[in-house]
Structure formats: structure tokens, C-alpha cells
Amino acid sequence: MYPTKYHKAASIDDAVKALGAGEEAMILGGGQTLIATMKQHLAAPSDLVDVRSIEGMVGVSLDGDMLVIGGATTHAEVASSKEVQKHTPALARLAGGIGDPAVRHAGTIGGSVANNDPAADYPAALLALGATVVTNQREIGADDFFDGLFTTALDEGEIITAVKFPKVEAAAYAKFAQPASLFALVGVFVAKTADGVRVTVTGAGDEGVFRSEALEVALTADWSEASAKGADVSADGLMSDIHGAAAYRANLIKVMAARAVLAS
Amino acid sequence: MTKVNMTVNGKAVSRNVSGETLLSEFLREDLRLTGTHIGCDTSQCGACVVHINGKAVKACTTLAAATDGADVTTIEGLANGELHPMQAAFKEHHGLQCGFCTPGMIMSGVDMVNRYKAEGRELTAEAVRHELEGNICRCTGYHNIVKAVQDAATKM
Amino acid sequence: MANGATGIGARVKRKEDKRFITGKGKYTDDVRMENQAYAAFVRSPHAHANIKSIDKSAALAMEGVVDVLDGHQLTGDGIGNIICGWAVTSKDGSPMNMGAWSALATQKVRYVGDAVAVVIADTQQLARLAAEAVEVEYEELPAVVKADKSLAKGAPEIHENAPGNLIYDWEIGDEAKADAGLAAAKHITEMEITNNRLSPNPMEPRSAVATYDEAEEHYTLYTTSQNPHVARLVLSAFYNVAPEHKLRVIAPDVGGGFGAKIYIYPEEITCLWASMKTNRSVKWTADRSEAFITDAHGRDHISTAKMGFDENGKITGFKVDTIANLGAYMSLFSSSVPTYLYATLLSGQYDIQNLHANVRAVYTNTVPVDAYRGAGRPEACYLIERMMETAARELGMKPAELRAKNFIREFPHETPVIMTYDSGDFDANLAQAEEAADVAGFPARKAEAAKRGKLRGLGYSCYIEACGIAPSAAVGGLGAGVGLWESAEVRVNPVGTIEILTGSHSHGQGHETTFAQIVAERFDLPIDNVSIVHGDTDKVQFGMGTYGSRSGAVGMSAIVKAMDKVEAKVRKIAAHQLEASEDDIVIEGGEVKVAGTDKALGWHEIGLAAYTAHNLPPEMEPGLKESAFYDPSNFTFPAGTYICEVEVDPETGRTEVVQFTASDDFGTIINPMIVEGQVHGGLAQGIGQAMMEQVIYDDDGQLITGSYMDYTMPRAADLPFYSVHHASTTCPGNPLGMKGCGEAGAIGSPPAVINAITDAIGNNNLSMPATPQNVWNALQAVTASQAAE
Description:
The complex is a heterotrimer of chains A (264), B (156) and C (789). Chain A has helices spanning 12-21, 34-39, 75-80, 82-87, 89-95, 101-106, 109-115, 122-129, 142-145, 213-221, 225-229, 246-263, and strands at 5-8, 25-28, 47-50, 60-63, 66-70, 132-135, 139-141, 160-165, 170-177, 184-193, 196-202, 210-211. Chain A has 264 residues and is an alpha+beta fold. In chain A, a hairpin with a 3-residue loop joins strand 6 and strand 7. The radius of gyration of chain A is 18 Å and the shape is globular. Chain C is α+β, with helices and mostly antiparallel strands and 789 residues long. Chain C is built from 20 helices and 28 strands.
């Protein structure tokens, strides 16, 4: 790896200061993507600002009906949280299926969301559930947050302190893993929310996570497996790689949507 | 350089490390605990799994500096005079051949048994296989590893 | 002899395990020398390019960089080109076209990863950063990565002395007879079959630590090798690194090999040379990404095959045409893999009188290809067994029935492709496998799966393979540059404990246990009194190493021969001291006795007597240490039947191996626990090849599957518990009757898996790996053809 300076931030102010001082400073969460990227010499931050020790960054709580997950809460903590399991069991199950056990012990929700990897699981959940990303500066709705491959609405120096999830009527996530990496080749999150049915797809889109209009229309009309399988999901705009051509991914989107509906 | 203080295998350790030093490098090169192995560079093979504060993590994807204050256990620190039941089970069931992935397998095995016991869940063969998705073995075909972990679960 | 607890056939727990389960194994990367520096290689990012210039100045200016060395310096110091050690002659009599391969390229790079320079620096981090600072100017050339495209007119030429990229055009068998057999056939099955390119992926990446002792002009190399003596020989005799007596090669604990650690690679050569140039110990350890672009790949064949049958299902003729991709350079044994290790096994378990195979080996702009677990035999087995299963479907016969109709049942049996099978009972393995797999119950299981929306399929593979390549004179006649014997030394110490020095090398096979078992049994001693020494050219006299499932049949036979000599001497000493006839001496229970009397000496007393030499028979030399070289009279022929049962999810193409049954004939088994472990591992790699693994290059020669993010390694959740059985015949060719077990699983399993999947989906047109996407596509083709009907 390229040389870098490590800072353990004790507070948000501390973190913001360190981020501003470094030439190419980056926020460090669980590091499960960032460190791997640095090892490949694909990232070379001058400074790493570790936000995991900041008070209030870790943990799950309820604010009325709203589930609030601290930005540095690990996937394992989310998966095993009684609050999460009760509020949105699909979210607990999703977190319990990210990476592998050792990755789940380290990786954080904030890190995953901020990175917006096109094959990550969390973005599908946030977008489908209509979650809100809370930063040290503002609150950003999921609809406005994800902005294409590895891109989000976050500004420099902006730190995800929490993610808030409203309670929904029904929700489930089904993932078909890319065989080598075990990232999502296709992951589909279905939710019946106050704003209607929302269906999001990760792993498949050329531009990262997206809402599937075809599936939302089909499942709004009829929340059933058959309806999902019969939806007119286009291969346009889907990724093609050695693990899945666009047509195969389009098929998986329908199949995973159907399985998610079945599990909801 | 960052000063780190941590407990490794029950002993207090204090060193200066650069920001980019990985925990795996720190263990292998600074502490010469070479039982933690490096089998890939994309955090998938799990040969480097150690426990930080009792939880399995990949030492190759953890910064040494970030481990300040932590309690780290490596394969060398697992046995307490006698072999840990997981180590003994790997021998008993021929759960290793070349031995390279073995430290990570054993550390992951201990971690999963601890979690399943704490949650009161049954560790079925299917569960063991699923829990091992972050550990790759090229020699054994996993058959005997799964048997070893299940057997150790009854003895831990 | 009675030693049931630890003798031949006992499931002895491994003696070597303790150090591995406690983290105390000593692998090459665990070695740290005084004054150690680190090497990092500057590698070509292009598949094919001329090197215009190398600018080292920026790297040399970095603090802590010791030196930056290039190929001109290397060749200038007389370091020789890397060789292929097996000369294969084309059918027109011309020698193979071997292109020059320098450890560091000087004029031209021929694959992504080809090394052009090396940085030696104080730390690994610094060496890698400095390697990025070395500026190499390239003139890019067009590249070719596929074997068939490489032979096409107008393809870029990779080596000057290999026109049309052809290395050799070789044949075996009688073409006229094969043609006549096909012409007489009632039915012909014809298939195009590819064998996917794989990366061996031992979990321990390759590593080397080289040290030059200036005062002694002596080199020491710690390295991840399956055959340290061969490494020393080649480094000395061909690469001119140092004469053999000035070069010690140590292969300590080695974390798996699977063929990838047989060869002597540019990195080890360079580290040795660089240690002399810089007068520092030089360490290099690959990371996984580097392993994918430097470890020799395996397989990569494209074949067309025709098999003719008469009205009774008997094979009338078999003809195969294969193109083998050997990559950018000829690796150490690369030439032998698609010829003498492949085409010679194309008769399978069947009595085929008319057989011909033609093999063309070609260069491409890819990583060199060489032996990977099975080496040639998996390619042969896959081809034959897919042909047989497909033919059975076409002929409307049960797959087992068609095979049994053609089984060889008399031994020795000479095939038309120069093999003499010495033993086997193919019916017994087939019957055992069918029973264990409950083939009779399959229709009910298929119906039950259908209710769950799953497609269930059953596939067979009746494999035969050849291990312990031999005898040396014969393989020499076929072009091998080395002998393929093995050596052993049995050292009885004055206190009676025994050290076995073997030229075999254990990198997971459990030699420290199984080798000790045969010694403990022979001399009826506690197994803990026996230790195995291997992997160090300063300790062991010589040896050919471990590959090709040879350590049992060849390595252990050498130990037996050395033990014969020890026993003879022990009898002489005992007979002399106990005043008895040598014929009356028995060795049991830790004693050497005179049969039928109470006269006995402790085993340790014999050892002491041999070394004190106070009372030895006249003319006898003191000491009790014997060595032997064993050169087998023939290959050995492990064989068996594998039956795979799968369930395919038609919606996703995802396939689950729900049952895998193996019945193997390995001859004598020393330790069933270890043998089963070898089968498990082989099956996992074979299932991996069949369903998951594939090295993929894009058309420009860039490696797409360059890490575990894209190259699928079989994981625990991808695999079943295996049902492993044995029905053995004794090998007549060696003293213990062993055949070998290390590769069978990887050889026999891929066709069983693909035959099962094609059975499930009703489409024979499926190539490895049967990834979910590939299976789904094959299913769509079935649906489309049904719609068209």
C-alpha cells in the first residue's frame, strides 16, 4: 500500500478537522472495501480518518416508529439486533448475508452506503425502504442519495452518522450471488411502503442500484410471485460481464423479485 | 507513525506502526507470529482470520493502527497448554492437508461455534458450510473440515 | 507383521498436524534472513509488445532501493534461458519449436505479467512502490489468446522460431485403422469438446528467499517447491546460477502445490542471481494477483472427436484431434502434458483396437500452461467419458451398459496408444459405485425433485489414469530430460530410532505419517520412533519430488528397497550375536529374535551393536544406514467409477451437487483416512473445474479472472459430503502393490458432473464450467428448440 496517516477521530469535529487537513483524506469505516482497494493500489488516501470511535456512531435505536442505525454499526450488529429483527426483519437478514462472517464483524452500514458499490446490498434496502441518510450536515433521502457507480450525494467532509428506516408493511430481499466474489450478481429488495410498492435492484444496473418500474407496476397490481415472474423486465441498461450477460441478469431480477415476494 | 497498545494472545504489546500497516503484517513481521497467513489480496480466502475482542476478522483487511486497545487472539494463542477443542478436532478428523488455510479455518470455526452457542442455534453441517464462505481451502474439499467444526462444537 | 494400530491400512492421525493447527508451520514466507531485502518485479501490462527502453532512474533514486536489475544484466551474467525438459517430436520427425524464455525479458514481452526488471529494496512495500516507478516504454503488438486462433493464417507470431505459432504437430495410434473402424461403424458419435483453462491456486502463494554467501560462493534458496532437487538440478545445469554443490535448495512446509510448484520460475532464478548482485538475502512472495499471472495454468484444450460403434454397442474406432494451448513460453513439462500424459490415456477403460489422436501444441499470449493436478489425464478422461455418455444417450442404452460392453477385462492389456494396463476390475468399481449411489432409486428421487421444481440428473465417469511415470529408460526414449525414479535412505540410529530420508516432497499429502507407517510396520516399532526427512538438498541425497501421484508407488517403493537392505544387515548382526541362522531371525515387538527360542536382542541393541562395531560379523561395515534408488517397471493405473447426482434450478441455472459417489481402485492403501482426504480434495477441484473455475482473457490478452473476485474457487457451501469407497486390485508392479490416489478425484469427476447436468437439462451441448449462467443458457436453448418443434 501507499503510505498513509491514520487518525482515530474522537468526535465529529475532530474527524472534520482531520479530513480537511489531509491532502487526500478519506473516511475509514470498517475498511472492508477501502483497504482492499488500497492494497490493489487503486486508492491512495493521504490520511485515513477512523470514525468508529465517535460517540453515537455505533448502535441501533428507535425514534418513534423510525429505526435508527448508527453509521459505524457493523453488519453483524445489524443482523443480530433484536430491534432490527423486530422492526424490519428483511434488513437484519440482508445484513446477515453481506460478505462473510469476518467481513460482517468489521464492515459498517455507513461505509457500505457511502461507497455505493454497484453490487452492494445495503443500497437496495435504503432505496426500497425510503430510508434517510443522516450526516453531520444534513439529512438526505435515499432517492436523492445514490448517484451512479460509486457516487453519492455526499460532499467532502460529510460523514454518515446514521441511517433512518421507516417502518413498512412488508419487505424482503433476495440475492443471487456472483459465484466468485459472493457480491450480488442480482439482488432485489421488495417493499410495501406508505408511498406504495418499491422494488430496487442491485448488482445489475450499469449505473448502480435502481428502482425497477416494471416490477413496481406488476407488484402494485398483484403482490405475488407469478406477477413478479411475469413482469416485463428489460435487459437494457443492465451490466454484462463474465458472470452474467444482461439477458441473464434480467431473468434473475424477475426470479429474485418473485422469491423476495414469497419471503415477504 | 502511530503508537499502538494492544493485547496479543494475552500479552501486552506496544509498538509504533505506520498508518498503512495491516494487522496481518504487524502480526507476522513485527511480532513474528507467522501462523496468520496471507492467501489472497481481496479479503476472500480467510487464511488471515484472527479474533479481535473475541470476534473473527480478516487481519489482512484491518489496520494495525485501528487495533489500538484491542484484545487480539491469533492461532498461536488459541491453545491454553492443551490443544483447543477446535484444533484437536481438525487433527482427529483430518481437517487439514497442507496446513496453510488451517489457522484461518480454526479461528473461523471457533468464532462460529461461539456465536451459535451464544444464540442457542444448532450448528448444522449446512450452517457450517455457509459460515465458511469467507474461508477457502484447496486441499480438503471441505468434507473433513465441516466434520471437525461440528465435532468441536460438541466439545466447546 | 502385527502392528494394526499404526501399520498398513490403519487410519493413523497425522504426525505433522500439531505444528499446523498451532500456527507453528514453517513456510517459505515465514523465513527471515539477516540483512534481508525484498524483490518486486516490473511486469508487462501488455500481452505482446517490444521493449523499447527501461528507465530505472526514478526507482533508483528512491531511498531504500538497493538496485534495479534487468534482463540484459541477467543474460550478461550468463544466466540461461528457461527450458522445457521434455522433447516432443512432431510426426514429420522435426523437433519441437521451443522459443527463448529469459527470466527477465530483454527484447519482447509475450504475456501480461512477463517480467522485465526487478527492484530490490529494503522493504516489500518500498520494492513494490519502486517497481511502479520503473518506466518501461513498449511498442505494442497484436496479441492472440485462443489456441485455434493462434493457428489461423495471419495470427501474430509469438516466437521467431515457431512459424504459425506451432510448437509441434504430433500423433499417436494408427490413423488408417481408426478411419477404417469409423467407416465400419453403425453409429458415430461426434463432439467438439473444450477443456477449460484453470489456475491451480495452492493457498500458499509462491515465495523464494535467496541468500548468497560471498566467502563460500554458495547459495541457499528457500522456496515453495514440490521437488527441491529438480529445482537445484535445473538451476544449476541449465540456468547456470551456481554449480550443484554450491547451491542448497530447501522447500520447507509448502502450502499445496497441485503442479504449480513443480516448475522453476523466473522469480526464483532472479532472486538467486539478485542475491549475488546485491549481496543481500532477497525475498519475494507473490500476492494472489501476481500468482494468477505467473503460476503456470492448466488444461486449455480444444478437441474434436469421433467414436464409432457397431450394432452391439462395441467401439469400432476412435479418432481425436486436439489443439493444446501452451501459453507464451514452454514451461518445464508442458510439452508432455497434451501428448504422453493425455493421448496415451485415450483408450480409457475400454477395449479400443482402432484409435488415433493428433495433437497440435501452440503458443499464445497467455501465461505458460503446464501440469495441473491430473495433467493431461483429466483432459483425456473428460473427452472419453463425455463421448461415452453422449453415445449411450444417442444409442438409447444405459450409460453403464454401454461402458460395460466395452470394458477391458484381461490384464495385462496393451492399448493402441502405448500403455500396458497391468491390473484392474472395472466391473467391480462400477457395481460398487452404482450400489452406493443407489442408482436404482434415482427415478424416484428425480420425480420428487420435479415436484419441487428442480431438474435432477445422474452422470457417470469410468476413469483410468496413469501414475508414477516410468520406467526412466522408457520415458527417456519418449523425450523426457530426467529419470523418474525415486530415492530413499533409511537411517537406523544407535538408539534404534529411524530417520527416513526421501526424495519425495510432502506439501499436504501426509508423508510424515504414511511413510512412517510402512517403516513402523516393517520393523514392528512405535510409529513415533520414525521420522521423515525431506525437502532439503543438503539432507537428502537426491530425489525427483512429488507430482503425478508418484510418492506412494515410487517414493515408498524406494523406502521398501532400502528397508530390505537394512533388514538383511539386521538379520546378519542378530544371527552373529545370537549364534543362529539368519533364516531363523524374526523381527517383532521391538525385538530381533531367534524363532522358537527365547533368544532375543532389543531393536535398540542391534542399532547400538551396528555403531559400536564391537561384535559384528567378519568383514561387515559398521553402521546401519542403507539407501536405495527405485525405478518402476511400468506406470501404475488407478481406475474407478464416479457417479454424480445434481439438481438444477431451472429458473436460475444454479446447480447443486446433491450426491457424489466414488469407487476407486488405488491398489494397496496405507492410510485410508489420508487417501479419502486426497479423494475429497481431488473431487472438489474436479467439481470446481466442471462448475466454477475458468481463466478468462479478453481478446487483447488482459486477464479478466485475475483475483478471487472473478475466478471462482469452490467453497464449502458449493460442495457436498462425498461418498468414497474402494474396490481394489493389487498393483503387480511395485512391492507394496500401490497405484496412487492424489489425482484421481480431479481426473474422474468433471465428466461425471457435466454428464449429470446434461442429463438433468436434456441438452448435451454444455461446456465447462457449468456456471449458473451457462446452464441457464443451455436450458433456454432446450426451450427454444422445443418451441420450434
